[in-house]
TrEMBL record:
This is Peptidoglycan DD-metalloendopeptidase family protein. It holds the Pfam family Peptidase_M23. Residues 228-322 form the M23ase beta-sheet core domain. Residues 126-140 have a biased composition (Basic and acidic residues). Residues 125-150 are annotated as: Disordered.
């Protein structure tokens, strides 16, 4: 191991006129210095390589981050646009819900009018009769001429509108569930009422509305004594048409000393109508007549002082006042 102690002498001559610089290094120090130099050189090369690699990777990552950021901003812009469209659609749905509410009110009103037309009582609750908006105040939008300042909608306002619209459609669903069976019942009741109305003497038997003698006790025009008048006398012109007051079957058509030419119609349910003093009979026994059909013409046959129709309504075998039955004309039945 003596070589460790050997020394190398190094001389440094700067120029011809300068003194010579000498220094000695042992073999060990020279080896260590050389090793350190090589290590530093390797470290430098490695660090430079790592730096170049990291620089490329960082650039690549930066490019990826920029692309991702641009794509994110693009998606965010698209989502904002989509959210705006959804908000507009929600506003439209809210308007539609209010419009449907109004139309359902109209349907309820029409149902009530239909029941009134055929004489059916509504018989429902106030909830059934009208549809009210589920929440919020109704807005009326004109078809044109709109304007005003455009104010951005806040999140709270959109959330409130969403809740209101959801409530409106939930309420509409409940109303439809109620309305469908109710309308079926109304349809059945109207059909039944129409059949009943068809056989109920509800129309005037003449075009004339001039009542010359009412139902009940009156002074007889021939004897001038108090007598019971079993029907109504309706003054009319000779030959005016006489109409069947309801659907039915002609059970009598002939002449008698008191009623003159007369027709008796059975309408079922124990109801009959009697038409007297005709100038001409236009129906015969067994005929099926409809409400408004002509069964004869006005005259003055039998016990009569002039052209008129003596009209009677008989219910369960008893004469009743016909006047409450006179609801409509033949044309408006």
């Amino acid at each position: 191991m003596k070589w460790r102690h050997k020394k190398f002498t190094f001389m440094v001559i700067r120029d011809a006129n300068s003194s010579v610089m000498r220094f000695q290094l042992s073999v060990l120090a020279l080896a260590i210095g050389s090793a350190l130099t090589v290590a530093l050189f390797v470290f430098g090369i490695t660090a430079f390589a790592l730096y170049r690699g990291n620089t490329g990777q960082i650039g690549h990552l930066q490019r990826q981050l920029a692309a991702a950021s641009g794509e994110y901003e693009q998606r965010l812009g698209a989502k904002d646009e989509h959210i705006g469209e959804l908000e507009s659609d929600l506003a439209d749905l809210s308007t539609q819900a209010k419009t449907i509410n109004e139309r359902m009110k109209d349907i309820n009103s029409l149902e009530t009018q239909l029941k009134d037309m055929v004489g059916i009582g509504s018989g429902g609750t106030s909830k059934d009769k009208a549809v009210k908006p589920a929440a919020g105040k109704e807005d009326e939008f004109a078809m044109d001429g709109t304007g005003g300042e455009e104010i951005p909608v806040t999140d709270d306002e959109m959330e409130r509108l969403t809740d209101e619209t959801r409530g409106q459609f939930d309420f509409l669903g409940e109303q439809l569930e109620i309305m469908q069976p109710r309308l079926e019942l109304t349809k059945t009741a109207v059909a039944k009422q129409q059949k009943l109305l068809a056989v109920t003497p509800t129309i005037w038997p003449t075009d004339s509305r001039r009542i010359t003698s009412t139902f009940g006790i009156r002074r007889d025009p021939f004897t001038h004594r108090a007598t019971n008048h079993a029907g109504l006398d309706i003054g009319a012109d000779y030959g005016d048409p006489i109409y069947a007051a309801a659907d039915g079957t002609v059970i009598e058509a002939g002449r008698s000393s008191s009623h003159g030419n007369n027709v008796l119609i059975s309408h079922g349910n124990g109801i009959r109508t009697h038409y007297s003093h005709m100038s001409k009979i236009l129906a015969k026994v067994g005929d099926k007549v409809r409400k408004g059909d002509i069964v004869g013409e006005v005259g003055s046959t039998g016990r009569s002082t002039g052209p008129h129709l003596h009209y009677e309504v008989i219910v369960g075998g008893e004469h009743v006042d016909p006047e409450p039955y006179l609801k409509a004309s033949r044309r408006s039945q």
